[in-house]
TrEMBL record:
Keywords for the protein's UniProt record, in alphabetical order: Cell membrane, Membrane, Transmembrane, Transmembrane helix
GO cellular component, one term: plasma membrane
Any one Gene Ontology BP term: cysteine export across plasma membrane
Record InterPro entries: LeuE-type
GO MF annotations in UniProt: amino acid transmembrane transporter activity
Matches recorded under Pfam families: LysE (PF01810)
UniProt-recorded name of the protein: Threonine/homoserine/homoserine lactone efflux protein
Length: 197
């Protein structure tokens, strides 16, 4: 039972803690509501789960052989996060869904595969919750992570939707979008800075 609790705790800490994906979900929830954000949440959750399975079922050996792979991934991921931050910061403060570029399933999926935080979480999870020649423990962990991740990311969309109570006019919504976009860009720049310093 303590192993299940450890798996749950790890998945919750990695999924609920602020990061690029959660910031986008928060912003999308505020701009488009829970229902319109659900496809991004689904893409991010499925993307992370498949990344976890990909690493856990063998790719971790490639990472050990080529440690520079994660450095290149961090650069590519940071550039994609900057792009997503730009989209959020430059979005119009009107809630006309037809005119806006709302986050999509594919963007959520790709962001997880390009997100350094997701790779670190998956590599750490694989090293903690897998056993040689026994995939049962790892598959159990992957199932728990999937459920916890879905609920955690969905809760960020609910939080974003509730934030709209305070974003009652175009000026506040625009300021919120700029702040969220800038936070993403700053996060990505920090990742790039640590990579090259």
């Amino acid at each position: 039972m303590s192993l299940f609790f450890a798996m749950f705790s790890f998945a919750l800490a990695m999924s609920i803690s602020p990061g690029p994906v959660n910031m986008i979900i928060l912003s999308s929830g505020a701009n488009y509501g829970i229902r319109k954000t659900f496809s991004f949440v689904s893409g991010a959750t499925i993307g992370l789960t498949l990344l976890l399975l990909f690493i856990g079922l063998g790719f971790d050996k490639v990472i050990n052989l080529y440690p520079d792979f994660l450095k290149y991934l961090e650069v590519a991921g940071s550039l994609f996060i900057i792009y997503m931050g730009y989209l959020i910061a430059s979005s119009k403060p009107e809630l006309d869904i037809q005119k806006q570029k709302q986050p999509t399933f594919i963007q959520g999926f790709l962001l997880q595969w390009l997100n350094p935080k997701a790779w670190i979480a998956c590599v750490a999870g694989v090293s903690l919750f897998s056993e040689p020649n026994n995939n049962q423990v790892f598959l159990t962990f992957s199932s728990i992570y999937f459920i916890v991740c879905y609920l955690s990311l969905f809760s960020w969309s609910i939080l974003g939707d509730k934030v709209t109570l305070f974003l009652s006019n175009e000026f506040r919504l625009k300021a919120f979008n700029i702040a969220m976009g800038c936070l993403l860009i700053i996060t990505a720049c920090f990742l790039l800075y640590t990579q090259f310093s």
